[in-house]
Design a protein that fits this description.
heme; cytoplasm; 7 helices; nucleus; Globin-like; Leghaemoglobin-like; Globin domain-containing protein; about 180 residues; about 5% strand; mainly alpha
Length: about 180
Amino acid sequence: MSMNTNNPALDVTLISSNGMRQTEGLEVKAFTEEQEALVVKSWNFMKKDAAQLGLNFFLKIFEIAPTAKKMFSFLKDSDVPLEQNTKLKPHARTVFVMTCETAVHLRKTGKVGVKESTLSKMGATHSRVGVVDEHFEVTRFALLETIKEAIPDMWSPEMKNAWGEAYDQLVKTMKESTPTSTV
């Protein structure tokens, strides 16, 4: 059964117990073999354009939430257009690639494949700059839209759910890895 939250990026698949993990009060499916196949296939297609897709991803975030720029020290006082910002481009690529690579390996490892120290540092940084759940929702929506635009012929509700689940697991793990997380 699907829960409609009035935001298509926030749809969550609810299922009954037995082997399901609990996430923020909702039971959601573990990452399946089918989801893994969809993520791997789409990432293999997108990988060659990761730098541009990463930039597109961040541009979407800033389009939806312009004030998010203030959370990035290298964007706060910059007059350089975002598309030309020399610090945003590598940051955007790194975040996009890490997110996608984590999704690809999620089922193989059964967990988010980023070192705990890295996740803890990421969580602490996000917490320090004031990232809250709503920011993660905007980021999730921007990620799914970026992927949808990158692979229009492959996009489907199943693809959306696969990438959404992978992102949700990454965020959940990052939050759990932050010692005094307020995110």
